[in-house]
């Protein structure tokens, strides 16, 4: 066992010393509560909110120190991120309104903000995507995986997603790193926007599809390939497997034959031999 201990000690010396994941999770939960769901049991004043944001900035400073190779830039990274929060907040609220408008099961905007896993996954994506653009890619990935753990929705922080994005139900959705999604797109559970090839030497190529504006993708459909585009206004039916481009306003569906029989015996005996 001594050689094993030596191996682990060497590994620790070669890899980054990272914060406990729960610290990252707590930061996201605290940010989410302030922005979308007040759970303090009272209405908070502007000064209280400002104080809480300052506390969050301190938390974020510590996280950046753990993830950035240029520790002297952590204050700048924090300032950049928090300066984008008003825009990200507005984009996320628009997503919530879109979900509320399109889902007949949603009875109030508060229900979407507080309890919808699709909204949580989209909101966390918007924060993690900003961090991805700032070069804090491991932190962005860790944040996005927190949403994945909580919701079973995996959205890579490198994906590009437009405004008014709606996820209905959501379980099992996978959106790859180089996917591009336009505005007013709605996706149901089990959808995969994936790559045709998983070769490591293609990591810097566009491997995932482009979904243009006003597209609906129904449950369990799989759309693959960096050169695959779903034209605007199209509807992709459930269980579709798509690896080629379809033009605007297309309806793509999987043809499946279903036969229904009553409980009466077969009209004639079935003879067979083995």
Per-chain topology:
Elements: H1 2-14, H2 21-36, H3 46-67, H4 74-102, H5 109-115, H6 117-133, H7 137-151, E1 154-155, E2 160-161, E3 166-168, E4 174-175, E5 180-181, E6 186-188, E7 192-194, E8 210-211, E9 216-217, E10 222-224, E11 229-230, E12 235-236, E13 241-242, E14 251-252
Parallel strand pairs: 1-4, 2-5, 3-6, 4-7, 5-8, 6-9, 7-10, 8-11, 9-12, 10-13, 12-14
Helix pairs in contact: 2-3, 2-7, 3-4, 4-6, 6-7
Description:
The protein is an alpha/beta fold and 274 residues long. The protein has 7 helices and 14 strands. The strands form 3 sheets. It has a 5-stranded parallel sheet. Strands 3-6-9-12-14 form a 5-stranded parallel sheet. It is globular and about 70 Å long. The N and C termini lie far apart (58 Å).
Features:
5-stranded parallel β-sheet; alpha/beta; 274 residues
What is the global morphology?
A: globular
Q: In what order do the strands lie side by side in the largest sheet?
A: 1-4-7-10-13
- Residues in helices, as a percent range: 40-55%
The value of Rg in angstroms is: 23 Å
Order of helices and strands: HHHHHHHEEEEEEEEEEEEEE
